[in-house]
Amino acid sequence: MTVLLSAVNIGKLYGLRPVLRGVSLDVARGEFVAILGANGAGKTTLLRILATLARPNGGALTIGGLDALAHPERARALIGLVSHQPLIYPELTARENLEFYGRIYGVPDLAARVETALRRVNLWPRRDDLARTFSRGMIQRLTIARAVLHDPPLLLLDEPFTGLDQASAANLSALLREAALHERAVVMTTHELSRGLDGVTRALILKGGRIAHALERDITAPALAALMTEA
User: What pTM was estimated for this model as a whole?
Assistant: First the structure.
């Protein structure tokens, strides 16, 4: 498999406090990697660095063969990001939000791509409603539509199941499985062992800024819970 993302010896300090301590990670096309850990383990910091939204104090990051630390703007075109900040404009409709981002990324056949993305997250019936009228779960679904609109090869998701009901969570799981099957790479952070493990090909447990365990078989909630207790 072709490696799409390569992080080598990533370190991050906040003041004098180390948050990441030499994290190395390769993710190939077709992989769906879950990064787990308790709050404060460094998951969000790691994902922000992988998304080129934060710079590490040490290490190297390559995305699609590109030095992402030297060329973050070019690297971002290869990334679809779902983070704690939804990056949705409340005074625009769902369709207008996606059209805005689509123009930034130069998405071809934009109207059709917007419709496809909104239908994929079951928001097409609400396409002309202002985002400020949406529930938290609907905003999360719109954020996911924004992240996949430009058909990026790499999806990075930070706690993407937050705020989703059972049906929406199942829809998201199917979307992520589909993305990995179509030779994209998916990296997801989560602390919810009961959600989102369907389709995961590798699970990494982060503790104290280091990868404490890696699991490629028997990726189940009980197995991961046991490792997180040991970590």
Answer: 0.92
